[in-house]
Inverse folding.
């Protein structure tokens, strides 16, 4: 077959130990997830000729690759926040299709929780205070405050209620209760969410993601590798990416995320429509992210996200998401892991079904970076 026309599959996925991990470095979590993903695929390190990683620190891909024993001939260190991994998956799929790589490993590891507890990190997540952001930081315009402002705008324009936003957290916890790898599994109610300590109006504590340690890895490979793998292939059908803004003053509409661009691109390239999708894995650092991303991906009309999530019209974040399962920083890679597991039928008690009652055939993962600064969307499917 000619270069540029090879199909690309996800052949291996895995998580490292997650949650409370006090006795491992970020490097070790990268390595643990990578080994498990290779074992999942039934391939060896020698098969990997491409590598991609990024992180909330100084772990450059060249350092992590050396730690893993890799000498890749294709590398990516794209860093656009939480959407990084969907964007990297798109770049890796393009490289494999073009013949520039055959098997690309995406790996992430973070001791975000342990670092804060040990006083090694302040916990103030930001893209920095240089350039245009210098005009926001002095006023305490933190990441959570930016999302809270956006949520309030959606509530003002579309009548979205705080109870509807709380439903996102309740449903995430219901899936987490079925996931033995989730960090928090005790059920919560809407009242529990609403009565929690205020973080940034309108967000109480349970509207916000948890902080955990952990890592993940995803292995993509050209179609000719599939026959040698032990897992059912999950195909990359279409991708899209978009960078919108950094400064809040450059965000044209607080009720529209960059998924409004990346989503339609991915669906068009995949040749499918949102109504054909069986589940969605969506970056959920805050409840509002889930609601507005569902709108922007086209699952419901703008302004109808509140009613849509309350109706539970689509399985979303079936591992419990960043609100309940794990959130060690840039969580986008975990979305891809869960999407692949669902398409393979490996969801266990949380396994969702397609419209025909059988295993799902199509899923979407959509990562978001910064404060809706970037988005990456990947449409996946099985044979």
């Amino acid at each position: 077959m000619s270069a540029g026309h090879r199909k690309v599959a996800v052949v291996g996925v895995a998580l490292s130990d997650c949650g409370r991990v006090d006795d491992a470095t970020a490097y070790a979590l990268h390595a643990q997830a990578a080994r498990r993903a290779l074992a999942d695929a039934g391939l060896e390190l020698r098969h990997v000729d491409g590598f991609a990683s990024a992180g909330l620190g100084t772990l450059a891909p060249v350092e992590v690759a050396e730690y893993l024993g890799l000498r890749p001939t294709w590398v990516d260190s794209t860093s656009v926040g939480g959407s990084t991994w969907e964007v990297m998956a798109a770049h890796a799929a393009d490289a494999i299709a073009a013949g520039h790589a055959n098997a690309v490993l995406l790996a992430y590891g973070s001791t975000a929780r342990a670092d804060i507890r040990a006083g090694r990190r302040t916990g103030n997540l930001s893209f920095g205070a240089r350039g245009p952001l210098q005009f926001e930081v002095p006023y305490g315009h933190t990441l959570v405050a930016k999302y809270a402002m956006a949520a309030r705008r959606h509530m003002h324009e579309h009548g979205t209620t705080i109870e509807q936003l709380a439903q996102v957290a309740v449903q995430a916890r219901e899936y987490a209760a079925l996931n033995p790898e989730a960090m928090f599994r005790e059920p919560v109610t809407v009242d529990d969410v609403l009565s929690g300590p205020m973080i940034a109006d309108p967000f109480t504590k349970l509207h916000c993601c948890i902080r955990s340690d952990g890592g993940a890895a995803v292995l993509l490979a050209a179609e000719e590798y599939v026959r040698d793998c032990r897992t059912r292939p999950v195909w990359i059908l279409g991708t899209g990416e978009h960078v919108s803004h950094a400064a809040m003053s450059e965000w044209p509409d607080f009720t529209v995320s960059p998924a409004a661009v990346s989503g339609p691109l991915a669906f068009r390239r995949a040749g499918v429509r949102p109504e054909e999708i069986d589940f969605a894995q969506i970056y959920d650092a805050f409840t509002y992210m889930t609601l507005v991303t569902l709108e922007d991906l086209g699952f419901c009309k703008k302004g109808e996200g509140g009613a849509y999530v309350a109706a539970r019209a689509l399985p979303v974040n079936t591992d419990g998401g960043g609100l309940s399962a794990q959130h060690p920083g840039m969580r986008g890679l975990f979305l891809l892991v869960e999407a692949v597991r669902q398409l393979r039928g490996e969801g266990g008690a949380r396994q969702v079904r397609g419209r025909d009652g059988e295993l799902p055939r199509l899923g979407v993962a959509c990562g978001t970076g910064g404060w809706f600064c970037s988005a990456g969307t990947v449409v996946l499917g099985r044979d």
In short: The radius of gyration is 19 Å.
